[in-house]
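S.,

Sequence below, as promised.
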Amino acid sequence: MIICKDVNKFILKGIELHVPKGVTLGVIGASGAGKTTFLKLISGLLSPGRGSIYTFRKDPVGKRREILKDIAVLFADIPVFNDELSVRDSLNEMKTIYGIEKERFTERTEYVADILGFKDILDTRVRALSLGQKRRAELGMCFIRDAGLYIFDEPCIGLDQNAKAAFYTLVKEKKQEGATILISSHDMEDISEVAERVLLLDDGEAVFYGSKDELVKKLIPMEECSIKLDGAIPDISDLEVEKLIIDNDMMKIYYNSNHVSSKEVIERICAGTMVKSLNFRRSGLGESIKISHFGRV
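The prediction came back faster than expected:
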């Protein structure tokens, strides 16, 4: 479905990967890591500075008009609607542009507007919508179409939990129909809800590409130990920790329990100082990713 060979553009450096047909891929990373650039390259909105990209086995720039017929895209920085038109008028324009059969269009509009919760704003001008209402309608425009590839850049901005749940449902439905779906987000927990594969970008480089299960196996053993000290700050420089935070008499240690045991942490702390209290908890996937790749000190 999608092949990238030694792709470079702006911050992106040497991206190599293959996304098979029917896969849901989550693209994650810190701000400026290259997530939006990557998605724009796939959709043909940008041309690589070096390397080659194939979407549907075609050059997405040279064959852009051809492949756009089978791609539905939503980018956070590219307007979808004419602010002076109503949502319904904008959807009807899309129906005409893509030649969607009337009965199918009506059926999908009713279903998607209902599940995303924008039926009551179909006749409202876009300029009068709130951020959340506009995003629901923008997502609706994508899901009304039957496409082979769906690309979403930060799709859950401005959405409440109900709308997010509706988005997850629609993504899973499209996956069951055989569509390939690419989603970038700052919210790693959202990505973990729908993605089976993950591309982790850090400073323009692909530091991980593989199954979500593989990423979870690698990162989920991240533990957090919170200590309230009653003495001097202990020296733990020889312990293999991911991150250390000291704030007055509070100390937080983040470590991968595959490499360091909780017993080792307790013994080292108690041997070097007096402790008032000590608590342990396991970090979630999103937090573990942040600590491992964006919070290392």
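The mean pLDDT is 89.

Coffee later?
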